[in-house]
């Protein structure tokens, strides 16, 4: 790659990043369906035509934000599932990791929480697909810990989906606590509730096939 081509590519990536960051900021107080393309380009300081060098439309930008928002969470939670042996240790590590992720990326969590059931279909579908892939990964992590004779694949998948739904719910609860009640005590309350809920899921898992 020539020096000129490298500079152009770096500038293109910088503009794409700026468009995504501007959209995230603007989406703190509105949904994607109400966001205007000119709002985003004005915030970045580029012409509206420049937007189409990076994204087909705002839905395409939204899908890119979905991939960015959930991508790092996949790796983080799977590392916890693979690295912890006991249920209590795994629960503690998971809740702590989700809380830290929300502290670091509140705009991303807010975007996912709002758009998961929002009015932009491609973005809803992208979120559903990412969470579906997340459930596949969690199910794969659970399989070695569950006896195959009593845990058919559909039941393992159901357990994984329950786990993923709980993570999304917990992240949203942390986000609300940090935004509305920044006191540490409120965040500790959310963490304690999340740990109890995960423990309940764990206890239910142990006795699921005794019922």
Keywords:
single chain; 211 residues; mainly alpha; 9 helices; elongated
Structure described in brief:
Residues 36-55 bind DNA. This is TetR family transcriptional regulator. The chain is mainly α.
N-end to C-end Cα span? 64 Å
Helix-strand category: mainly alpha
Number of helices: 9
Query: What's the main sheet like?
Result: none
Would you tell me the overall average pLDDT? 88
Shape: elongated
**Helix content range:** over 70%
What string gives the helices and strands in order? HHHHHHHHH
How many DSSP E strands? 0
Q: Residue ranges: pLDDT <50 for 5 or more in a row?
A: none
Share of β-strand residues = under 5%
Would you give an account of this structure?
There is one protein chain. Helix content is 78%, strand content 0%. With 211 residues, it is mainly α. Helix 1 crosses helix 2, helix 4 packs parallel to helix 7 and helix 5 packs across helix 8. The chain is elongated and about 65 Å long. The N and C termini lie far apart (64 Å). 25% of the residues are buried. The mean pLDDT is 88. It holds the Pfam family TetR_N. It comes from Streptomyces asiaticus subsp. ignotus. This is TetR family transcriptional regulator.
């Amino acid at each position: 790659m020539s020096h000129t081509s490298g500079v152009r590519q770096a500038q293109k990536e910088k503009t794409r990043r700026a468009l995504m960051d501007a959209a995230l900021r603007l989406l703190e107080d509105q949904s994607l369906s109400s966001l205007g393309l000119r709002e985003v380009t004005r915030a970045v300081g580029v012409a509206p035509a420049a937007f189409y060098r990076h994204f087909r439309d705002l839905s395409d930008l939204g899908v890119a934000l979905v991939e960015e928002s959930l991508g790092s969470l996949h790796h983080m939670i799977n590392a916890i599932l693979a690295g912890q042996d006991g249920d209590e240790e795994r629960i503690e590590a998971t809740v702590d990791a989700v809380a830290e992720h929300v502290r670091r990326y509140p705009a991303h969590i807010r975007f996912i929480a709002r758009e998961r059931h929002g009015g932009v279909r491609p973005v809803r579908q992208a979120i559903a697909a990412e969470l579906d892939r997340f459930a596949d990964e969690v199910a794969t992590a659970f399989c070695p810990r569950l006896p195959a004779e009593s845990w058919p694949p559909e039941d393992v998948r159901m357990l994984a989906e329950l786990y993923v739904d709980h993570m999304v719910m917990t992240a949203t609860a942390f986000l609300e606590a940090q935004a509305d009640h920044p006191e540490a005590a409120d965040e500790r309350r959310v963490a304690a509730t999340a740990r109890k809920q995960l423990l309940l899921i764990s206890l239910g898992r142990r006795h699921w096939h005794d019922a």
